[in-house]
Amino acid sequence: MFDLVLGTGNQKKLVELRSMLSADRYSLQSLSEIPNAIDVEETGSTFAENAALKATEQAKHLGRWVLGEDSGLAVDALQGAPGVYSARYSGVHGDDEANNDKLLQALADVPDTKRTAHYHCQIALSDPEGNVRLTAGGTCSGLIRRQRDGGGGFGYDPLFEIREYHKTFAQLDLIVKQALSHRSRALRQLIPKLDRLVRE
């Protein structure tokens, strides 16, 4: 069994990642399950930089293999905002309701055809010495709706519509979301590399 730490306390991300990793091969814990975990400041200017920071700093502190993940929403009409500030767009980290409200206000005068957006995810795996050993990334494109729809997901999911399905991420069940999401696409890139690394 290969022990991994997911460099976040976000339980919804943990569920999504656990569902894609083989339970026979990998054990995955979140930071909320580790009493001596540290808070890593996200000072990077890109998702990739923040993912690497979360992985390497936590790995060196814990002396364990750590998966750092950074993801967020880039809206074309807002020149890529909220971007790396997605979780704290409203000024309060992790306040999904306030973040969604601010996004709707920012796009109030933007026509439907110009409300294109992209979810991005970057993942970095650090060894216990703080060396990045693997990286992967994924994106998912859609539109920002004018009101929330659906009770699932988290973050901007109630506003993010997958055009092919005419549904938001918050309206899709977990299996469908896993097939489409930026995080699952990044993981599908990462897992074969991780399997090879574990076999070495």
Report on this model:
This protein is 31% helix and 24% strand. With 200 residues, it is of the alpha/beta class. It has a single domain (2-199), classed as Maf protein, CATH 3.90.950.10. The chain has a seven-stranded mixed beta sheet with strand order 2-1-3-4-5-6-7. α4 packs across α5 (182-199). It is globular and about 50 Å long. The model has no long low-confidence stretch (mean pLDDT 93).
Strand order of the largest sheet: 2-1-3-4-5-6-7
Which range best describes the helical content: under 10%, 10-25%, 25-40%, 40-55%, 55-70% or over 70%?
Answer: 25-40%
Structure classification: alpha/beta
Number of helices: 5
Report the radius of gyration as a whole number of Å.
Answer: 17 Å
**How far apart, in Å, are the first and last alpha carbons?**
14 Å
User: Do you know the CATH topology?
Assistant: Maf protein
Beta-strand content bin? 15-25%
What's the architecture in CATH terms? Alpha-Beta Complex
Mean pLDDT across residues: 93
Largest beta sheet, briefly?
A: 7 strands, mixed
Text of the CATH class: Alpha Beta
What characteristic shape results from the CA principal axes?
A: globular
Helix-strand sequence = EHEHEHEEEEHH
- Poorly predicted residue ranges: none
* Whole-number total of structural domains: 1
Q: How many β strands by DSSP?
A: 7
Cofactor: Mg(2+)
Family: Belongs to the HAM1 NTPase family.
Organism: Stieleria bergensis
InterPro entries: dITP/XTP_pyrophosphatase (IPR020922), ITPase-like_fam (IPR029001), RdgB/HAM1 (IPR002637)
